[in-house]
Write a structure and sequence with these properties.
Elements: H1 6-26, H2 31-49, H3 64-79, H4 81-88, H5 92-97, H6 102-114, H7 131-146, H8 152-175, H9 200-223
């Protein structure tokens, strides 16, 4: 991978650290969750530094080993008894605040675009508006959990909209990566996320953001009063 400005690396590493810190706060200091997350990050760091993900056209694409395990783990949390109990103990306010990391992530992606490491379609200049989620998260947190002035319906609506914005950028990122399934950006594929430290974006930040959204959605739906049948 070509040399990139050191500021890009620093901002992204600090953003990842902030994501982990806020998640640790959201799980109320549960050490086991932190250990699992850090072990996963260490494994992905070793794989990326070894050049494992630089074999772009393998079958199956090695990108699967980066994306699939977190998805499987999240699914297990939502379908198992221990996972559901874990989710019920989470702090929804902190899970909402965690989305502020999407602001520096989008700035880093734009910097990577300027350095020809990701395509424009992955930035706010090319149809990726995920930064809106980060910009609005502090207001949702403050008025929703500090002041309690936001209804559950509005909270759910915000989470679903921001979840859609997340799926939009994930869709663009995966299909612009240099794999046999690439559909976009052949002139400038998404190569940054296959290298350290940007491999942490799909390995850590995106799964945490995804998990935060669907956990809060589940909590809000469970807390809504059930309609009585006449």
């Amino acid at each position: 991978m070509e040399y990139l400005p050191i500021l890009n690396y620093i901002v992204f590493i600090l953003t990842t650290a902030l994501s982990i810190y806020l998640f640790y706060r959201a799980v109320n200091g549960l050490l086991g969750g932190l250990v699992i997350l850090l072990a996963w990050l260490l494994l992905q760091t070793i794989l990326s530094l070894s050049g494992f993900y630089e074999v772009y056209h393998s079958h199956p694409p090695r990108l699967i080993f980066l994306l699939l395990p977190p998805v499987i783990f999240i699914v297990l949390l939502f379908i198992t008894g221990w996972g559901k109990r874990f989710i019920e103990r989470l702090n929804p306010g902190t899970l909402t605040l965690i989305h502020i990391v999407r602001i520096p992530v989008e700035l880093v992606l734009y910097g990577l675009f300027l350095q020809k490491q990701v395509p424009q379609l992955m930035t706010f200049a090319g149809g990726n508006y995920d930064i809106v989620s980060g910009l609005t998260a502090p207001f949702i947190y403050y008025f929703g959990f500090v002041k309690n002035r936001i209804s559950r319906e509005l909270m759910l609506g915000w989470n679903f909209i921001c979840l859609g914005l997340l799926f939009n950028i994930v869709y663009r990122a995966v299909l612009s990566a240099p794999t046999p399934f690439q559909q976009f950006a052949f002139d400038q594929p998404n190569i940054a996320i296959l290298h350290f430290p940007y491999v942490w974006l799909p390995a850590c930040i995106v799964p945490l953001v995804l998990f935060s959204h669907i956990s809060v959605i589940r909590q809000q739906l469970k807390a809504m009063p059930k309609k009585k049948h006449v």
